[in-house]
Protein: DNA-binding LacI/PurR family transcriptional regulator
Organism: Paenibacillus silagei
Amino acid sequence: MTVTIKDVAKKAGVSPSTVSRVLSGHPRISLETSRKVKVIMEEMGYTPNMMAKSLVSKTTNSICIILPKPAEELFSNLFFMELIRGIVTQSSRSGYDVLISSGANEKEELEAVSRLLKGRRVDGVILLYSRKDDAVIDFLQSGGYPFVLVGRSDRYEDILSVDNDNIMAAYDATNHLISMGHERIGFVSGPPNLIVSRDRLEGYRKAMQGKGLEMKDEWIVEGEFLQDSGYRAMSFFMNLPNRPTALVAVDDMVSFGVLRGLNELKYKVPEDLAIVSFNNIPLSELSSPPISSIDIGIYHLGYTASQVLIQNIQKPDNQDGYTNRFVIPHRLIVRESSMHTPGN
Amino acid sequence: MTVTIKDVAKKAGVSPSTVSRVLSGHPRISLETSRKVKVIMEEMGYTPNMMAKSLVSKTTNSICIILPKPAEELFSNLFFMELIRGIVTQSSRSGYDVLISSGANEKEELEAVSRLLKGRRVDGVILLYSRKDDAVIDFLQSGGYPFVLVGRSDRYEDILSVDNDNIMAAYDATNHLISMGHERIGFVSGPPNLIVSRDRLEGYRKAMQGKGLEMKDEWIVEGEFLQDSGYRAMSFFMNLPNRPTALVAVDDMVSFGVLRGLNELKYKVPEDLAIVSFNNIPLSELSSPPISSIDIGIYHLGYTASQVLIQNIQKPDNQDGYTNRFVIPHRLIVRESSMHTPGN
DNA sequence: CTGTGTAAAGCAAACGGTTCCATTAGGAGG
DNA sequence: CCTCCTAATGGAACCGTTTGCTTTACACAG
């Protein structure tokens, strides 16, 4: 049988309440008693039952991560791995466990979140995406549950969130290509309902406009954060009469798809097409050629999200003048894929 | 306030036990009562408190996976990503939540596992590695806790485990090179305390001996599951007087390191050195040249592990004649890196 | 009309903790 | 010597469910 607080109490000749107080370091316990009880706990191999503790304290010391919809697909991106790594590392430092959950669609996600939060299985939630008009966010917000968004919301201003300045990041990426001498620059975007797609597209537009460069509609292609999207975008671009000499892709995975396609068609990177993309996942420097990428500090993003959430769980009253939006700095890593000046 | 089973009971004019029984589909509840109660639960937005439920049922409907801390360093992240993806997918299908935990070292891992299991926070554990003489395994085994090993144990025969036939896989990889005409074949291994390293090395040996080929000690190099190890192994091999014409690497990441090194020295793959490695991570086909690799079905490995564990949790008495070791098939994917017959 | 079987629902005791309130025993102050 | 205070501990209720054991209420056979 598992040993409970009562067993320890009996053997130590004290009451259960005393044992409980020893456990929580209550001030009014004599040093002597405390030591005696601790020895006995050790002897008997006592481990507190978290469920019982949670039941009364209404606290679980765990948080949960909601993976975006097509968890099975999007999950194949190293982006999430890094994020999770950051979250798990920081959480365990704060003594919190991390639960991973996902749903096949927005409705399932909502059910899962509701079950976990209302069922008191977790204390808070980290959302790994930011969609437009998200029902999950509405639920969390109106229920007053602690949560943090990796990304930003289009509706609520006062939400706790950790994000990059994606507009600026895209601006930087595009300007890098422009400064290398490119004038015809394409853009491969992500799903339009994701805020990050829109932000990056906006940054691209700003940069192009800023330098007075032409922006054709056909140079902007929508896709997913997947290789295939890159592959398709590539074949579309390369068949254009006056095709771009460079492109900005919304995610490194997309670049890999582009690379694969160009390779098949015997085009050279960066000579025939220069590429810059986002996220700087660990594989970016391993491809051939290595891909120039905006490092957005994924691990840091996750680490901070966890920190901010747990802090909010522990004292929810910290909106006194402090900001709710945390911006993680980005930085352009230039690699071979963009190191070429077009012959024009 | 949150609504409890008692609130529902009061409003429905029945006892709490009745509500509980409605919830669990007890047979001796009249259809009428059942319907009435369900309507009221819906109205009041009732969600069961998992903690209370777990406390009495001694069951949590969640499992946990232990990431080896060295995982972050030793393994290619994509491997774990895939594994986790498989686990989370299958677990959520079975209605289980997944908790992620890790420790900085074996002692910390043990503490975490003990806290989670003895503290009744999870019902079972998936270990994502198999080391020699593992204390965590000893703990789980002697405590009679449900767990499954991805990999295999060197000590216990009757442990639940999901693995590849790594010996055979390495045998196949090596034989592929032999059949291409290679006779001097090197091997880059992983840390010797990991069972997978040993198994693959053994398979390599078997294949070489099987064909009566010479095996020099200097053709076998130990490393980690990292690029750097490949880089180092490469420069060692290429400086050998009678150097190998091909090599088998224990992980794709190692191959990338080899590739990078060879590229720097202007050697050609596969002409100067043919390569085959393991795991077939998504990037394997993106490198130049694409790498021949043994696909070990990582996702499937994770999916099966979760399945087997949950089954064992739900009815622990299934060792009646059935095997405890599940072997996921592997398959050699031949790509450019090994498509060349040595001129000799 | 009484005894018996059965379906439906209620009672109350757990599960393993925490915490408010009460109790006890000295020691200080008057 | 008697209060009164305080430090240290004990007692018991409670957190939200589940479940074994009763109880209730009929229907039906004898």
Notes: The longest helix of chain B spans residues 77-93. Residues 2, 4-6, 16-17, 20-21, 23-24, 48-49, 51-57 of chain B lie near DNA strand D (CB under 10 Å from a C1'). The two ends of chain B are 80 Å apart (CA to CA). The mean pLDDT of chain B is 91.
